[in-house]
Amino acid sequence: MSVLDNWHEWKNFLGSKLNQAQDQGMNNEVVNSVAYQVGDYLANKVDPKNEQERVLSDLWSVASEEEQRAIANVMVKLVQNNGVR
Description:
This protein has helices spanning 7-23, 28-45, 51-62, 65-82. The chain is mainly alpha-helical and 85 residues long. InterPro entries: DUF3243, Uncharacterised_YmfJ, YmfJ/YflH_sf.
């Protein structure tokens, strides 16, 4: 089973990776840029595996680049607040 198959596992995985990046000194601007790149890759190359990912994919597909960056930033905030340390 992939972490992409379960929304809660995906959030925890992202939260863990975010914590690692921040512990190694990655600043928020770089984190948000990487989050945008990951979001764009997932939207273009990976089929959503659950309802939450489908919603994000649908939102991403109709959003401007500025809105996509906002979605990525919100995902960072979500996993910062809910990720496992």
